[in-house]
């Protein structure tokens, strides 16, 4: 199978720090591929090597069948890159900004205008970039990465610092981009984002890939217990602990939560006690997988 991206044995060191330490993976054509990890995991360094912005110390990388390093001018028109931090030309409007980026690839001005509509910025075309909201600026950044119609798009933390509404709107845009046939590689530390958007994810920490696969498959492999919650007061804690299949029970005064690996038995027993008002059942998530693999300690 021909892969859009193929990475084998990638390594990058900065002094004694192994930023990338033997990373290997492939990305299929048309796939939405995520690279997840805590701060300092090596996500951005890996992406920059694949994009041709950094030289690897060891290993091989091919992008669309070509090596990205040394800087490959024949590859550049075929990829689009949205960096973790984007800088725009001062005092230019959104339209002028996008037309400037497009001109670097010979894109006509009218196509740049059409791209503004695609990312939902048509009404902001004549607004100076510094007056755009955070979500609007992120959309413009993605438009700049897409204006020349690339086959492959790299997105590095595209929803960082966005409010929940702006994040959801941006998710819709990314789905449309991927549905249009483009391959997308995304780095993020938002597990819900990766679970919703990505076909497969690679979980990285300390420069290495710990697990790789579809989010749902990784969650099933964790074999995490289900959590069943009901309003406090419906069932005493001691009665909840006595339910068949109940493992642990907690009550914070708002919700009583039962952890179990046999949710059907617990729910049936709770129904018999008429204690299902407001019931919520939560299975394992990609965040559970992430924390199991990378630990729970805070990292700045």
UniProtKB/TrEMBL annotation:
Compartments it resides in: Cell membrane
The way this protein sits in the membrane is described as:
Peripheral membrane protein
Q: Which UniProt keywords apply?
A: Antibiotic resistance, ATP-binding, Cell membrane, Membrane, Nucleotide-binding, Translocase, Transport
Question: Which Pfam families does this entry report, sorted A to Z?
Answer: ABC_tran
What biological process terms from GO does the record include? response to antibiotic
Q: Name one GO cellular component term.
A: plasma membrane
Give every ABC transporter domain span.
5-231
Q: Fetch the InterPro entries from UniProt.
A: AAA+_ATPase (IPR003593), ABC_transporter-like_ATP-bd (IPR003439), ABC_transporter-like_CS (IPR017871), ABC_transporter_ATP-binding (IPR050763), P-loop_NTPase (IPR027417)
Q: Does the keyword Magnesium apply?
A: no
What GO terms are given for molecular function? ATP binding; ATP hydrolysis activity
Q: Which family does it belong to?
A: Belongs to the ABC transporter superfamily.
Q: What name is this protein filed under?
A: ABC transporter ATP-binding protein
Q: What organism does this protein naturally occur in?
A: Actinomadura rudentiformis
